[in-house]
Amino acid sequence: MIKVRNLSKSIEKQKILDDINLDVAEGEILAVMGESGAGKTVFLQHLIGLMQPDSGRIEIAGRNIVGLPERELLGIRKNIGYLFQAGALYDFMNVFENLAFPLKEHTDLNREEITARVQKALTEVGLSDAAEKFPNQLSGGMNKRAALARAVILGSRILLCDEPTSGLDPERSRDISDLIDRLSRKYNSTTVITSHDIENSFRIADRLAIIQDGKIIAVGHRDELESSKNSAVRGFLLK
Predict the structure, then answer these.
(1) Which contiguous run of DSSP H or E holds residue 237?
(2) Which residues of 68-82 are buried (b: 16+ CB within 10 A; e: fewer)?
(3) Whole-model pTM?
(4) Which of its termini does the chain have fewer beta carbons within 10 Å around, N or C?
(5) How many other C-beta atoms can be found within 10 angstroms of the C-beta atom of residue 51?
(6) Is 29 helix (H, G, I), strand (E, B) or coil?
(7) DSSP alpha helix (H) spans, 83-125
């Protein structure tokens, strides 16, 4: 579903991504782990075309998105849900309106159909009673749940989650991780999660990649990473 080849990006002469190669299979949950500043968010933003690389290819369902004009990128983004680290809900809209917005913009559904779709999404994330609340009335965990519901409401084939457990306590981190896992499996989404949350990444991901200083230093299943003899991999996992 996603193929990344020789992806490199520098910002203000600093190398952020350095010749990254990575595949994500259809329906797979892949966690890209690394410390803050390792390049995780920049990598994720390239997968949706929010940033353009200096070199390399990014194929989404067989199509290279690098260099595409904005109009064509918009068409591809309709099939990609993006959970921003801070949620990025519109603060002037309530939860219902936040979820209804992409449906109004990108579908021909009528008002009743939009209402039904939003109510279903809110029920799936445990927020059926929060439709009229505004973002500043939500807890951190509720904000993440609402943002996740918005990210998947179009039925996107791909789900990208940027540090979904950031700022949450251990219980809420586990809850949001389990929710991402459940929704990804239910809709067979190809899911990429960036995180420094080793415990939850290990619990829900099919495979994991570790990025350090803009380079992928390891990719594999949990047991493969835990048995790695690479000192950088072991050092990250033991932190």
Answers:
(1) helix 231-237
(2) beeeebeebbeebbb
(3) 0.93
(4) C
(5) 16
(6) strand
(7) 95-106, 111-124
Question: Residue 210's pLDDT band (boundaries 50, 70, 90)?
Answer: very high
Across-strand partners of 160?
Answer: 82, 192
pLDDT tens by residue, 17-73: 999 999 999 999 999 998 888 899 999 999 999 999 999 999 998 899 999 998 898
Q: How many whole angstroms separate alpha carbon 155 and alpha carbon 107?
A: 11
pLDDT above 70 covers what percent of the chain?
100
* Whether the predicted pLDDT of 236 surpasses 90: no
Q: Residue 58 in contact with residue 65, Cβ under 8 Å?
A: yes
Residues 177, 174: Cα–Cα separation, whole Å: 5
Amino acid identity of residue 7, one-letter, is: L
Question: What is each CA distance from 72 to 60, 67, 156, in whole angstroms?
Answer: 13, 10, 16
- Structure tokens of 221? 């299943």
